[in-house]
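Following up on my earlier thread - several people asked me to post the actual chain instead of describing it. Fair enough. Here it is, all 325 residues.
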Amino acid sequence: MQYKDYYQTLGVARDASADDIKKAYRKLARQYHPDVSGEAASGEKFKEVGEAYATLKDPEKRAAYDALGQQPAGQEFRPPPGWNYGGARAAPGAEGAGFDPHAFDDLDLSDLFAQMGAARGGGFGARPDRPVPGEDFDTEVAVSLEDAFHGTTLHMDLSVPEPDAQGRLRPVTRTLEVRVPPGAVQGQKLRLRGRGGKGRNGGRDGDIYLHVTIKPHPLFRASGHDLYLDLPLTPWEAVLGTEVEIPAPGGALLLTVPPGTRAGRKLRLAKRGLPRAGGVAGDILAIVQIDVPPHPSEREKQLMAELAKASSFNPRAHFAQETTQ
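Reply from S.P.:
Thanks for posting it. Predicted structure:
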């Protein structure tokens, strides 16, 4: 059989932690997902990544894989004497006992570890009929800000690796109906129980975990349940105060701008942000920006000139104070 360097496939060190392996898998699975990637070989890459992760995420399979030693990727090799697909070695003093050098000739490395997963007992002392839970899968689901506010139901196709009758991992497409609750936020994890890999020998089916991402919005930026909005004001609106209508996911809102409002000030509309399940909704925070007419009329220029002569306001007065110290 040919040796496959699963650590190299995931781009991690051989002493990588379980968390590092999981993070690497998630990143590569998203990169090569057939529904996302435009690369011609994405399906094969996705399969290779899934195969590597299926082995390295399992402590027993990983230990057995490590026991094979490190070989150049693609090199023909046979497991060492005393190694079996349960990962056990012959007892001391019985090197090679019962070892058939041709026992692995018809196996692919992925077959070897698929059989380990199915048996879960060869060399480890567990029963061959031991219940084996199905694999959990992770993917991202992108929703608009409006859908995050109101909640929505999405229908999505998800390609997941599943073993075929011969135990080889093959991508299988599943159509999922996903309910996104009102108030979903960036990074929230939604769990679809029993929709992951199939369990064996009575083991429970795995789950699918959907990681929510909020699509960019032309006006609002979401931070948790709070929404931020840049609010442009004219100089006279900022000086005199005004009321402005602003759009919001829940409908247009009227915002009072106090007289003398300065650039950078945050004006809060409490409980108008993304809702919280069983709690108080987030806020909308309008961040004031002072804007000026890009092409002022002659009359506007005249009025500005009169204001400049009449006003004693100096926004840079503190510059002089700093230079005299």
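The chain is about 25% helix and 25% strand. That should answer part of your original question.
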